[in-house]
Amino acid sequence: MISYISGYIIIPLEVICCKIFFETFCLSKKIKMFYQVLFWVLLCMLIYIPAIFLGNLYLLKQIIVIGIVAVATKLYWKITYKKSFMLAFLFQSLLLVADYVTIIIDSSLLAGSMNQNQSTQGFLILLTKMVLFLLIIIIKSTLGQSQLEFLDDTAWLKFMFFPVFTIYIIIALIYKPELMINETQKQIFWVFAFGLVGMNIMLFYLLQDVANKECELFERRIFEREAKHRFSLYESMVEATKQQQALSHEYQNQLVCIQSLLHKEQYNKLEEYMKQVTGVVLKKFHYIDTNNAIVNAILNEKHSQAMEQDIVMVYKIGNLAKMTIEDQDIVLLLSNLLNNAIEACQKCINEKVIKVKFILEDDNIVLSVKNTYDGHVITSEGSYTTTKKNKRNHGIGIKNMIQVIEKYNGFYSIVHDENFFSFSCILPR
After folding, report:
1. All structural domains of the chain with their residue ranges
2. pLDDT tens per residue across span 48-65
3. With the C-alpha atoms ordered 350, 382, 163, 210, is the resulting torsion angle positive or negative?
4. Which CATH number fits domain 289-429: 3.40.50.2000, 3.30.70.660, 3.30.565.10, 3.40.1260.10?
5. Residue 208 contacts by C-beta under 8 Å, 6 or more apart in sequence?
6. The whole model's pTM is what?
7. Degrees to nearest 5, angle at CA 379 with 365 and 400
8. Does residue 385 register a pLDDT over 60?
């Protein structure tokens, strides 16, 4: 009975593992659940055909199964045939590795139980699929480029406990056959073991749902930050327009006052008045003009913030009128760079300097921000992270900037020494 049932569940378990494996390397598609289930059920039925009729022709059966999986996954994920065949071949190789690991376990720990009764072989089938599942999970946690990247190593280690524990339970059931006195008990224990395998799969997808929610929250935080930047720029541009209108309105009155003081030859009062007027104008004057309204707004706003913090800003700016980067990406990239630089300078005790280079050069956009800092840098797994205490709500700035740079197929470099921290990038125009 157990052998009969396990013969039918082996392919669905393999197909589920195949789906998880392909999701590691392919972008997920938004397909209705009904059509997803229908697709994978049909794939199981297609794989059953060579499994039933080509049982003795192992090599031919493997070639046909690889072809079926490759074509099906190509249609499902809209990937190239080259990629689908390569991944299908790698998955079949993992199946062989799982079989080999099970054989090693059986020969070294279980005294060759494969040659025993059929019920024991049913447990070995479950053991093989759990080994396959564990191998795929290890690959996914190491190489996966999906929402699961939001899970840290601790979360993965906690999850790994469940498949390892399931493998241990199945081995124990095979190793202690005397616990199963009759056929009924064997069936009960087999259903228990199968339930553990199913719970592992359910737990994995539950973990994936949690990661999806975390990804949505992350994207929402990015959106809120971008919206905040855009609103701040809008306020800055509106305020600048109002100030310029006010200055234009007052300009004629100021000229009349200057002319009156000159006529009365009150030169001391004129000198004092000129100092007051020029001081007000300088504070309200927009220093930087790149022929790009968004860049102007960001640079002038951050320049004003830097002046309030006694930070010296040095510029090498070109004509950016022909720059083709989208406005929201400019806001995200430049605002994050300058915010980080200003925050770093605020922590400096001595010199506070920010050097900005933003030019078009050889059909490329060159952007570099170099600033003094306190010499304290935190890295995690080769990446730079925030020095702020609330790491959950901060530390996404550099990651966001890198995503923008990669969006335009650009390059970036991060260099720092004891005094200066520099972030540079080159983007196609």
Report:
1. 2-142+150-223, 289-429
2. 888 888 777 888 888 999
3. positive
4. 3.30.565.10
5. 147, 148
6. 0.58
7. 40
8. no
